[in-house]
Input
Amino acid sequence: MPDQLLAVDEALDRLARHDPQGAELIKLRFFVGLNHIEAAKALGLSERTAKRIWAYARAWLHKELQR
Output
């Protein structure tokens, strides 16, 4: 489990360099527990934009963790 947490943390750091909003959205949703609308508001994004960023960031993170 600690190895998995470290892998997620490292992948989020890489995502933050590539897509800072995507990384922040992932953190707000997974670690803070905000729902989609709350996370979008926290980042000052429209719901539609947040959904687009979420889809990309989630897919990117999944791909990174599969390596």
In short: The mean pLDDT is 94. DSSP finds four helices and no strands in the chain. Helices lie at 2-18, 20-32, 36-43, 47-66.
